[in-house]
């Protein structure tokens, strides 16, 4: 099967969707499928054509305003003319405008399309930024979903968000979780220079919705309880709040216990998890929460917020969930593991067993079944709901026809 994965960002960017696409692509290739990735060119210094391992990657600059879509439709038409033999287009994440063009291309070339909602790419409860971004492309994105019959969500919470955004959605949204490469994580070696130094870790983008500021408040409570005996907190990630978080840690007088290591490659993050006593996921909003399952695979018990899709990505026998935004509850939960070595070891074993159920070897078969049953989008419905679609569809079709004639 020839599969094209479409996503708003891809490697070298680090994040849940990027990790998912790369791991899913590698697994598909290992099963004999042919795979490529189409993604946004950001920053513009990245190459147009690239390979990530064995995965061919095409990057296209993607403005999201409709008045710039004619030139974008032409570019997608050119890309499609070189990939007209695809069996499936799978857009992972619904961040505008790429999934809309995935649907247009599927309709133009009669290629089945699967759309997957991954969290805050649709408006999430208590997350104003996701609602703002969705509103920017609401008209054409709603039309894209209404004209596609195969739609998935990474969690029940994200599924609910999709139906809140489009209450009369034609398709039945199926829940298919993100998978992990469990065996690779089991085999990861902890970092040699950290093996004798106890630490807890949080692998998060440094953005407001990830709740690192709450974790720092909890860390102040824990340092007050344990003093010099408190393990260090390692924070792996980067983002707009980095400087503010460093300032917060300084003001709370906990900087000697907090280590900001910046954004790190996925395999390095797994090595950090392998050596950690605990993984802390203090998100205020979270559509899925793949890092929780990855932490389990690394044998690392989890303390996380009871929000969004996180409960679906943890083992109840290997995690403690707390109300989001509550530093006291977070500190108490961290202490429950730190003060009980026997329970921590038991949770580690339970988490590893849970993670094996989320390995791509199990999860990918669900996607293969969807690929076999998916159908091309309904162009008439797309045009009815967003009339400008006819113009962009015609550009893609015309570009395809010209390419076909010139290749004869």
Number of strands: 14
Look at the structure and name the CATH superfamily of the largest domain: Glycogen Phosphorylase B
Largest sheet, spatial ordering of strands: 3-4-2-1-5-6-7-8
What is the radius of gyration computed over CA atoms, rounded to a whole number of angstroms?
Answer: 22 Å
Inertia-based shape: elongated
Number of domains: 2
How many individual helices?
16
Instruction: Return the structural class.
Output: alpha/beta
Q: Name the beta content range.
A: 15-25%
Average pLDDT, to the nearest integer?
A: 94
> What summary fits the major beta sheet?
8 strands, mixed
Please give the CATH class of the largest domain.
Answer: Alpha Beta
Predict the CATH topology of the largest domain. Answer: Rossmann fold
Query: Which spans of ≥5 residues are poorly predicted at pLDDT below 50?
Result: none
Just name the CATH architecture of the largest domain: 3-Layer(aba) Sandwich
User: Separation of termini?
Assistant: 25 Å
Order of helices and strands: EHEEEHEHEHHEHEHEHEHEHEHEEHHHHH
What helical percentage do the residues reach?
A: 40-55%
């Amino acid at each position: 099967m020839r599969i094209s994965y479409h996503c708003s960002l891809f490697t070298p960017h680090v994040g849940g969707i990027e990790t998912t696409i790369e791991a899913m692509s590698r697994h598909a290739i290992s099963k004999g499928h042919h795979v490529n990735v189409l993604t946004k060119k950001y920053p513009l210094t990245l190459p147009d054509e690239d390979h990530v391992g064995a995965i061919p990657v095409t990057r296209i600059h993607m403005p999201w305003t409709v008045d710039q879509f004619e030139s974008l439709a032409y570019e997608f038409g050119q890309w499609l003319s070189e990939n007209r033999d695809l069996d499936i287009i799978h857009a992972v994440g619904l961040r505008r405008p790429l999934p809309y063009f995935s649907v247009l291309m599927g309709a133009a070339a009669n290629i089945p399309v699967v759309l997957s909602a991954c969290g805050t790419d649709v408006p999430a409860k208590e997350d104003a930024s996701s609602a703002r971004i969705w509103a920017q492309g609401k008209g054409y994105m709603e039309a894209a979903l209404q004209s596609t019959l195969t739609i998935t969500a990474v969690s029940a919470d994200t599924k609910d968000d999709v139906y809140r955004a489009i209450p009369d959605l034609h398709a039945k949204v199926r829940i298919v979780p993100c998978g992990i490469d469990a065996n690779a994580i089991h085999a990861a070696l902890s970092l040699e220079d950290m093996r004798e130094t106890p630490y807890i870790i949080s692998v998060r983008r440094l953005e407001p919705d990830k709740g690192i500021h709450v974790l720092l408040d909890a860390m102040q409570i824990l340092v007050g309880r344990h003093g010099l005996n408190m393990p260090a907190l390692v924070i792996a990630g980067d983002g707009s709040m980095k400087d503010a978080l460093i300032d917060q840690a300084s003001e709370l007088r906990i900087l000697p216990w907090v280590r900001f290591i910046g954004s790190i490659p996925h395999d390095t993050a797994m090595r950090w998890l392998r050596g950690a006593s605990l993984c802390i996921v203090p998100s205020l909003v979270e559509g899925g929460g793949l890092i929780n399952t990855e932490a389990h695979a690394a044998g690392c018990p989890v303390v996380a917020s009871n929000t969004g899709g996180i409960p679906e990505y943890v083992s109840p026998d290997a995690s403690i969930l707390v109300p989001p935004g509550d530093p006291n509850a977070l500190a108490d939960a961290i202490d429950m593991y730190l003060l009980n070595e026997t329970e921590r070891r038991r949770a580690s074993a339970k988490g590893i067993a849970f993670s094996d159920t989320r390995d791509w070897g199990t999860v990918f078969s669900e996607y293969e079944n969807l690929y076999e049953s998916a159908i091309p989008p309904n162009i008439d419905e797309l045009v009815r709901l967003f009339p400008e679609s006819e113009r962009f569809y015609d550009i893609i079709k015309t570009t395809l026809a010209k390419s076909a004639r010139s290749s004869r």
